[in-house]
Each structure stands twice: as C-alpha cells, then as structure tokens.
Amino acid sequence: GTEMSAHAVQVSLMVEDYPEPIEGVKARADGYCFGRDSVEEAITAIARGEMVVVVDDMDRENEGDFIMAADQCTPLDMAQIIRYSSGVVCIALEDDRLEELLLPAMVTNNEDPKGTAFTVTVDASKQHGITTGISATDRSKTVQMLADPKFEAKDFSRPGHILPLRARPNGVLSRDGHTEAAVDLSRLAGRQPAGILCEIVSEESPIEMMRLPEIKRFCKRHGYVLTSIVDIAQYRRDTESSSSS
Fold first, then answer.
1. pTM of structure
2. Within a 13 Å sphere around the CA of 132, how many CA atoms are in the beta-carbon half?
C-alpha cells in the first residue's frame, strides 16, 4: 500500500499547516497534535492494508515509525519498510498471543531505556517455505503467521529475524510507545491485534533517524498518513469515554 491516496495527501498537507513546534510532537490544549482526523485517516488506511507513519513525543524518542497491520503485510510492503528504515522489523503482540507462542522475554533484566519488551526472536519454520528468514518475502510470511491465531509455537523457529514485542495492556493509555500504538491502530482498524513497526532513517542525514520536519516532507512525498501517539491516546479517550457514557 504505497500508492498515494487523496486522503493521505489531504492529511499530509493538513499536517504542514499545524502551528506546532516544528522539531517534534506536543499536544495542544485539546490533547491532539495533528488532530482527530489524522487518527481516523490512519485507521482507515490500516484497514485498507496500507502502512502509516506514527511519531512519538519530542521529549521521548522523537522518531517516526512505519506501522501497519501484520496480517496485511505483503512482501512488497516489507521491502518498502526495509528500504526506508533501520531494517530492525518488530511486531507488537499482546500477552495472550505471546503466551500461546511460548515466546519469553529476551532477557530477564531489561535495561532498555524505554522499557521496550523484546521477546525471543523468531522466523517461520522451514515447513512453511522459509529459506534464510531475512528476505522481505520470508519476513512478511513470518509476521503474517505471528498475527494469525491458527499458527502455534511449533510453526516457528528460534532465534530468527523478526523481533516480537510485548505490548502493555490498554495500549497507549498505559504506555506512550510505538509498540502499543501498533496494536491499538491494528485493533481499531478491525485487524488482528498485531502490528508491524520499524523506525524510519533520515534520507537527508543517513547516519541519524528521521525527525518530524523531515518526516512531514517524507509523508507528503510518498502519500503516507501521518499521526502521533499523542493523537491516538486522545482519540481513544474521546471515543471510549463517549461510548461508555
């Protein structure tokens, strides 16, 4: 899903017009940064099987990640992600799914500065046509299978080239990370609660990660919907509070 859509162009242009600090995401008084429409457009795009770009707070990592529903990831999607990113492709999964797959934490003492909950890495097994596990074709097959509840622990080999991450219960309302955003957006889009995420590398300074000013230009050029973790959290507060009242 890399074709430019009219909705994505509209959102990308809209994002350029926001009078926010250009160096990173900060919530406005209403709790949004790019606006509620940006989240709704992201949900719609993911439901169509497209990838979107999600930025976290400028005081956190201040990075943009590709995010898409894992059950929709084709080899071409995976190749696109790898082309523009760090290539460290992760899949965010919920507790129950990780327990089913018998995927424990990667280490007992997690020293990651942001508390990212890495598990043991995996590939789909050779019985499912996997070769080395590193190609876009192999990696897309692995993430699709991880998202599909009919596949079990025996269908995967360890270690591998995909990094599963354990998402916190209640998503971005409990932790403002891309891991939780990936699961939240996939669920909101009606897909399996399993989302791919990978950090985007700067094209202007390839030794660094892409930051918001460049991310805006990148999304406008490629037609990706852009939203933020701040926006997703506020959208959930608004929609879940109204539905329960």
1. 0.89
2. 3
